[in-house]
Amino acid sequence: MTLDGTHDPDRRSWVETANDPETDFPLQNLPLGCGRGPGGGVTTVVAIGELILDAGRAAATGLLDGTAAEVVRESGRLNGVLARPGHELTALRHALTTLLERGSPHAAAIRDDGQMLLEAEQVQLLTPTEIGSFTDFFAGIYHARAVSEILVPGGDVGPNYRWVPIAYQSRAGTVSVSGHRVRRPAGQLLRPSGQPEFAPCEMLDFELEMGFYVGAGAEAGRPVAIADADRHVAGFCLLNDWSARDIQRWEMAPLGPFLSKSFATTISPWVVTADALKPFRAPAMPRAGGEPRPLPYLDDPQDQAAGGLSVQLSVWLCTERMRADGEPPALLLRSDARHLYWTPAQMLAHHTSNGCSLQPGDLLGTGTISGPAPDELGSLLELTEDARRPAVLPNGETRGYLQDGDEVTLAGRCVRDGFASIGFGPCTATVASADSLL
Amino acid sequence: MTLDGTHDPDRRSWVETANDPETDFPLQNLPLGCGRGPGGGVTTVVAIGELILDAGRAAATGLLDGTAAEVVRESGRLNGVLARPGHELTALRHALTTLLERGSPHAAAIRDDGQMLLEAEQVQLLTPTEIGSFTDFFAGIYHARAVSEILVPGGDVGPNYRWVPIAYQSRAGTVSVSGHRVRRPAGQLLRPSGQPEFAPCEMLDFELEMGFYVGAGAEAGRPVAIADADRHVAGFCLLNDWSARDIQRWEMAPLGPFLSKSFATTISPWVVTADALKPFRAPAMPRAGGEPRPLPYLDDPQDQAAGGLSVQLSVWLCTERMRADGEPPALLLRSDARHLYWTPAQMLAHHTSNGCSLQPGDLLGTGTISGPAPDELGSLLELTEDARRPAVLPNGETRGYLQDGDEVTLAGRCVRDGFASIGFGPCTATVASADSLL
Fold first, then answer.
1. What are the pLDDT digits (tens) for B382-408?
2. What letter does residue A342 receive in the DSSP assignment?
3. Chain B nearest C-alpha distance from A214 (Å)
4. With DSSP H G I counted as helix, E B as strand and the rest as coil, what are the percentages for chain B, rounded to 5?
5. Global ipTM
6. Which of A166, A354, A436 has the CB atom closest to B263's CB atom?
């Protein structure tokens, strides 16, 4: 967790919007993305304030050179970029900081180029990597407990929960970035008659999660040791694991969720790098008395001390009526990544512990991140107690589950005294009707 | 299910081993594979008797022309080949039949080429497609019932089973073809103390399945109608869904199997095409009185009449000691693909019913195919009642679960009066120790 000059909060950018204390993308963030620019090419891009730097073009024109240029030189998705050794990604970060800092001798050249520093509207952001696989964990213990409570009042998490970072394979091919609408799925809904009917989902939900990307892969048969696991995590995003609760309830015994999840997952487009997040690492969730110590393959002092993450998370809802009335999105809940029972390193080490390989660019989700308080529950299932206590919006509308036209936004922000706050950018999608499915 | 001249059992090949009644690969089969030949190139290959035809080379040299040549002209995996419309794959089949039939004017040219018709040892067979996703179903009702019985004597399948083609996403990145060894996984094993220990799996099992490949894909939001679904199935293979029963039992509540499956899956390397299997289609499993009729999106008269498959399946075991003593593999069980409760078309239609996309080359597994008789149970879990009644091998060795050095082979063969029998080729792998994981 060595901090360096790139984390210095006093450094400012010549891109003025990057110096706004409210921006998600100050000079200290510099998240990586994959974008299609006005010329049609797909390249590595970097968010800075309200603008986007085409890093591939900066390398091609010599404004980035050496290791930094090598890292971003190839076009296409970020799988190859994220697979680079940590010190090379750090070198890129240093070079980008120098380039975008006030006083940079290259500021004029970048501005004058006309194609290198772009308005957000000029860039189509794509999924950062070709996501070869998407594994979703269940590491939010308050979520796991709340879900158990809804099924069995007073119920706790299962006996394996405190030993196993539980996960399932999810659908990589239906992950899309913020801004794409999400079609309500159709599926088998169990009716009071005891028989199912094929119909549009009536209990469409979001799940507030974070995602993280595998950087350096893991070979089959070569598990990643817990002490090394953080080095395989290249960066983080926000992740909305859309869930059809009615389909899920009926289909999931005994092999887990399938169609209730596979229709869509939304991620924020920016990879907030492990380097940028260094000031915001936190202790792993402490184990209370009676809770088991992690097994040795999941137990590392450094991971216990600083393997967690401190990220303030929130979920916002804007209904069709609110949009028509010009109202802003309403805050539904706040939570924090500190509420994860397992660290990213523990999840990644566990994933490889059976000999399973990981590829650069693979996506791992944390599972829903709920907190202990009633206004920290990270899904409508929990927040509305399965629609028994609908959420009331500022305009009087209520929601048990989502309706067509609802726009859901996840936000995440890292705040720590003495450091510049950084954010993830929005993870937003609007619910479209299931009409095309029927 | 229109049969044509390519199914005529009287046609013979000038490749004499293709005329052996015992061969899996007579002229009437012509399965497609992806192989690396002696020159190092990766190309579409075809099994004929004991030999392998480099179809890409046949196209490049003009021996295949027109549509057939276009289909196999690109090098690399078969994703693009299988995505072709059915009539183009049928045209390829006709062209290959003509080329390899006795009396073909090109026989001498093929033989003389020296690089086009290869010994099996000259070709490294790869996974036929780049497997973007691997979804595993649970469509063998006798398996589902046997597993329930082991957990709860007298137990039946769950209430959703007869309505929902149950499935889960499995791990595409660890699927490998026959011949690669499979490393025993390590993982959390629950001990009698009530606490888990991280150790090599002690209950390693096989699962007898079939797999099928998506040909033409399905766009997100455009479900495939049940009446069209068979047209999206390009071909079939055998599939061993290796399972670590001890890891599985402990990890799988509530989200399903994860590390107990993700370490390895073995498939037979040949894609036995939907065309080749036409004579061996069978009625869907009839629903008994009291069993529900499939919901409309899974119900099609043609699928009910001929959407099933008749494939004789068997599993063979050869231990290290048997190999040392020169003994042949021992038959463990026989089963048949007729014992699937859901047809491939139903599985594929269900998969897309929520709007989920499918890509050409995606792999779908059927789930374990057990039959109703005690010697038709498709895994050791069932066959040995969870090691309570170990299987006794001809040399007196016993097996509750698999030991290191055990070689497991799945075989599949289609037999019908008036037709040439065709087979799938072996799906074989040997269990290696977990040493590298610890």
1. 999 999 999 999 999 999 999 999 999
2. S
3. 14
4. 25, 25, 45
5. 0.97
6. A354
